[in-house]
Amino acid sequence: MNHKRVVHIDQHYISGLAENRQEVITAIYRKFFPRIKRYILKNTGKEADAADIFQEAMVAIFQRARKGDFVLSCPFEAYLLTICRNLWLNELKHRKRQEVTNQEANVYKDKSAQQLGEETLLDQERDRFFWQKFELLGRSCKDILKLSWSGIGMQQVAEQLEISYQYARKKKSECIGRLMELIKNDPAFAKLKYE
User: Fold this and answer.
1) How far apart are CA 20 and CA 37, in angstroms?
2) Is residue 97 very low, low, confident or very high in pLDDT (cuts 50, 70, 90)?
3) Which of 20, 58, 103, 160, by CA, is between 20 and 30 Å from 177?
4) pTM of the model
5) Cβ burial, residue 48 (10 Å; 0-12/13-18/19+)
6) pLDDT per residue as tens digits for the range 170-183
7) 1.10.3210, 1.10.10, 1.20.58, 1.20.1070: which CATH number matches 135-191?
């Protein structure tokens, strides 16, 4: 999945989202939301569904863009529509309805958009899964891991938690081990295709 991609001219949308630039976010909503809304309305949805799906897609793209190494290799519209379509199909499955007429199918023929959309949603699902398992840890594990992941050194972590440096290192190792155990022992782990 890590092959070289040619940067599409629409990369500015990704950069704008990563930088949380309001003018880019507004432009995306104005330009692309009407089409998403039409698609969802034509496929048994309501206007509120369209707004929810669009927002969820924007969050997924924002999270991916913030990772810094994301390269858009297709038109932004095709990428966004692919994500929205997949999210809507998942929502319909949850609602036990399969009556999607698949309007606007021509957009989804862009293999690059399909691949990027699927990668983005998988990435979002992995993040969600990770944080669900993280929440199962005890308070002291959560505290030590959050602090150590914040970029400060273990000496500062120990000082902030008022514990010894040696104990902080040992506890961090135990907590990571417990977190990995929770992750790997969940049957959903295999479905998320971690590499």
Assistant:
1) 23
2) low
3) 160
4) 0.62
5) exposed
6) 998 898 888 888 88
7) 1.10.10
